[in-house]
Write a structure and sequence with these properties.
The protein is mainly α. Among the domains are: 285-511, no CATH class; 598-631. 69% of the residues lie in helices and 2% in strands. It has 23 helices and 6 strands. It has helices spanning 11-32, 39-61, 100-123, 132-148, 152-168, 175-206, 221-238, 246-253, 256-282, 287-309, 314-335, 338-369, 385-398, 405-420, 426-429, 431-457, 473-491, 493-506, 517-538, 563-567, 574-584, 590-608, 613-631, and strands at 6-7, 67-68, 80-81, 84-85, 216-217, 283-284. β3 (80-81) and β4 (84-85) form a beta hairpin. α1 packs antiparallel against α4, α12 packs across α18 and α13 runs antiparallel to α16 (431-457).
């Protein structure tokens, strides 16, 4: 694999990196002192700061002429006051790295942050989160810091603060949302602790904390332990199996803006960014590690999309799809090839775009209707045309329908799997399994988004929908921009997007076979235009409609078949129905299983406290014996 080029920064560029992190953090701390009754003013100030940060991101991203082919890092050692280093030895840990991968992530953090902030200006008038804008800016600053950090200790500090902001951006308005916030905090915190163990093992093995300078082969037990420990942190943040259960709970209880910012976009960008560092920089993966990643990837795809099929709450449905899409990225990195890494990164960016857009459209629907259950909705396409059009584009993108961006990145993953099958080893010999399950996941995704779009926007509208209007411009503009980007990234994937955006981060590679995204898009456009012309020329639109005859009664307007009812048939299959019942009862939820284990142990220890003195003497003696055995 070709190594991504690294940037050697001069003093001015070092300042760009510093201010990219400091500005949002300072803005967040400043906004903490501003009362929430000035919500609009706080939002405008946050948007202005995010635009400045976006400008700095563009400057950093466009600094490619300064890229060189050696592996030095851009070191940040210029925090001075009156020509003296105010940090002393602590400055040795404040090292930043800037390469093709970090530049790519930083750019899209800025794009998504600005669009979601613009959306929030109107959305937050009806949905309030205490200190939303301060925590939003802290989230942006820490996200920049985590991506640019070269030192693992500096990285884990920013990473850990992001767990706190994730908790603060979900309001505890009821018992359900409070439980989701607590669950998120515990799972993220536990995974961070496990990550610290992995980092300690890496430092013990290499004597270094620099991401740029560590490269360990996963051939020893210690190295495998460190690899798996860091993988837990990456998977929990991104929402991959089996550490995914916080995502659907969070998205159901959190405002759409919080879900669009974190589980949909920033957490995916950061979690997969760290997965890229783990698999391409910190470790050299063995065949066994590749097999583990591929297994986890396809399990994540299938299990999450099957759960999404059964959801009636559209926010929870989107939460499970936020998990399912991570599986494709994990499969891409599990391949260990350049095209696999490129496909994983491309799908990461695409997922952040259409998944953020889907949560924004869901927020628009919930704001205008007050509903989040699909069976309570229908026929909103006419009342909310921009939201409907954007939702349709996002739904086709995530389902892998050409010519949208989701198809382009999934196609690259399919190509990577086929190429992977020409190699040796157990993982390569099972390439048809990985390919088949990935394609099946796309088909099931399409099925569930037929329910999403059909249940909300199509079908028969009730009388109440006549009073529903489109959302304000500050809300539909971000959705429209994201939808247009999804189209552009799909149509020009092979000609512009992958060569200019993805290849600098992954390394150079060549597509196998004949595939041109623009040519595929042209064929799709021609087929649609031809179909429309045939429809108009044949006069098919001249048809007669009659009400159903039901005993002389005219009740057609009052009858309809709810979209969600069709999907209930999936739950009636024998084996599948049992699995669904167990899943709904949280039988596969690692958080719930851990909680039950802790409560069981606590109960057993409580029973040991009988209040009888001989019993306590026996416990003391047993403890002393165990200590002596350990010391010996």
């Amino acid at each position: 694999m070709n190594e991504p080029l690294k940037l050697i920064a001069d003093t001015s560029e070092c300042l760009y990196l510093q201010w990219l992190i400091i500005l949002p953090l300072a803005a967040g701390l400043l906004l903490m002192a501003v009362p929430d009754r000035l919500m609009l003013l706080k939002g405008l100030f946050a948007l202005a700061v995010s635009l400045v940060a976006g400008y700095l991101s563009v400057v950093i991203y466009t600094s490619s002429p300064l890229m060189t082919a050696h592996g030095d890092m851009a070191r940040q050692g210029c925090l001075t006051f009156l020509h003296s280093d105010i940090l002393g030895k602590a400055g040795d840990y404040l090292t930043l790295t800037i390469d093709g991968l970090s530049k790519l992530i930083v750019l899209f953090i800025s794009i998504l942050g600005c669009l979601i902030l613009l959306y929030s200006l109107a959305y937050n008038r009806s949905v309030r989160v205490k200190n939303y804008y301060p925590w939003f800016m802290v989230t942006l600053g820490c996200a920049y810091g985590a991506v640019l950090s070269d030192n693992l200790l500096l990285f884990i500090i920013f990473w850990g603060i992001l767990g706190i902001t994730l908790y603060k951006l979900i309001p505890g308005k009821d018992e359900e949302s409070s439980a989701a916030a607590k669950k998120t905090m515990i799972l993220i915190g536990a995974s961070d602790t496990i990550m610290l163990l992995g980092m300690a093992i890496l430092w013990k093995m290499t004597g270094s904390l620099s991401i740029d300078n560590i490269s360990v082969e996963t051939t020893s037990l210690l190295a495998v332990t460190a690899f798996l420990a860091l993988l837990v942190g990456s998977f929990t943040k991104a929402g991959a199996f089996p550490f995914h259960s916080w995502v659907p709970d969070y998205t159901q209880g959190a405002p759409a803006t919080s879900s669009a910012l974190l589980p949909a976009s920033l957490d995916k960008l950061l979690g997969i960014y760290f997965l890229a560092r783990i698999t391409t920089s910190l470790f050299v993966m063995s065949q066994g590690m590749k097999l583990i990643l591929l297994i986890i990837g396809v399990i994540t795809i299938i299990t999450a999309v099957m759960m999404a099929l059964m959801q009636h709450n559209f926010k929870r449905l989107l939460g499970y799809h936020a998990v399912s899409q991570v599986g494709y990225m994990v499969v891409g990195f599990g391949l260990g090839s350049v095209i696999g890494v490129a496909a994983g990164l491309f799908h990461m960016i695409n997922n952040a775009l259409y998944k953020s857009g889907l949560f924004l459209t869901a927020g628009a629907v919930e704001r205008q209707t007050g509903q989040s259950e699909i069976e309570e909705l229908g026929g909103l396409a006419k009342a909310m045309p921009v939201t409907f059009a954007a939702s349709l584009i996002f739904a086709m993108s995530i389902s892998g329908v050409p010519p949208f961006n989701g198809f382009a990145s999934k196609w690259m993953i399919y190509q990577g799997i086929i190429d992977f099958g020409t190699g040796e080893g157990v993982a390569s010999s099972l390439w048809i399994v990985w390919l088949g399950l990935a394609v099946l996941g796309s088909a099931l995704t399409l099925a569930s988004f037929i329910k999403f779009v059909g249940g909300i926007f199509l079908g028969r509208a009730d009388k109440a929908s006549s009073r529903i209007k489109e959302v304000p411009a500050t809300m539909w503009i971000p959705m429209a921009v994201l939808a247009l980007i999804c189209i552009f990234f799909g149509v020009f994937a092979t000609e512009i997007v992958v060569p200019r955006l993805i290849a600098p981060a992954s390394g150079t590679f060549f597509f196998s076979g004949l595939w041109s995204s623009s040519f595929v898009s042209l064929l799709v456009a021609v087929s649609i235009i031809t179909g429309v012309l045939v429809y108009l020329a044949a006069g098919i639109k001249k048809y007669r409609t009659e009400d159903s005859f039901i005993g002389g009664e005219r009740i057609q307007d009052q009858t309809a078949y709810p979209t969600v009812e069709f999907y209930k048939t999936f739950m009636e299959f024998g084996f599948v129905s049992r699995i669904y019942r167990k899943a709904e009862n949280k039988a596969f939820d690692i958080y719930n299983l851990s909680k039950e284990a802790v409560l069981w142990l606590s109960d057993r220890l409580s029973r040991a406290h009988t209040g009888v003195l001989p019993g306590y003497v026996l416990w003391i003696c047993a403890g002393l014996v165990i200590m002596l055995l350990i010391m010996i």
